[in-house]
Amino acid sequence: MSLSFMIFLYVFLIATALVISAINDILSAVITLSVFGILLATAFAILQAPDVALTQAVINSGIVTALFLVAFSQTEKPECYSEEEEE
Amino acid sequence: MSIRPFIFRIAALILCVSLGLMLFRGIAALPVPEKVIGPAGHYLARTAGETGARNVVGAILFDYRAFDTLGESTVIFTAVCGIAMLFSRRKFHRSSRGLSFIAKRGIGIMVPFLLMYASVIILFGHLSPGGGFQGGTIFATVTVLLCVVYGSSFESQYFPPRTKDILESGGALLFSGIGLIGLAAGTGFLSNIAAGFPAGTFGSFLSAGSVPILNVAVGMKVGAGLSTIFYSMIKMLDAENDHIEGGRPR
Question: Tens digit of pLDDT for each residue in A58-69?
Fold first, then answer.
């Protein structure tokens, strides 16, 4: 696999991980987590670990996203997260 | 807007970057191995002869380390029991009517292919990447799709919770029963070829002794378990948030 594609993949992995940890909106964080899972699965497949890649893709982008979305819609949502987080 | 969170963030960033640099230097300092030694070398050299499975990862999971796999699936079993108990207070439940007609028809066309894909991943777990865990999770994803698109009462009509319970317990029983066969043969719990399971032709569909059976058992367990978790969570959600009179959406 070409070096430029690997660099693209790793840069986007780091970027999505930073977005997940830093963003205030939980829904965006969950969706970014799914994107992160797909990118990580691609990285595993390139590194010749197809079993791990399959598990990562199915678990992270399928089940975990669905469970997190259900949990998100069942919890109370404060008006704005940002002011609470600053304190 | 105080300055303290900013300082904390900078400190955390420096900590992360320095830890990552140390790990990276550690990777660079590792010697490149000339040949694979230890258990990994044994697995790579002897898996084909000892188990008959072409997928070495599957052979390790369901033959050499099958007892660990039994423990892992017991963890999922316990989690499903706990979550189902936690969410089981509400007896009645109403279902949403699901999404639009277009989404329903689109998912209806996709679902048979998804089911076939999951079955192939489970049944060919000893030949190609995949196995019971991954295939079972795809089965659970299909039920999640049905729950979301058609409404949960439709899903529970086609995959009743009772059936899921039976499937999950049956998977556990099948796994333990295969293990007990090895114990009865006198070769140890969950032993494969040594316990008399036919090894078959290397690379053919019917090969690798008990590995495909254990794959099916784990697939039943994981698929039914994860789908039960999602169903019990969304059932409560539907009962609380949806005020449409339920019933079966066609």
Answer: 888 888 888 888
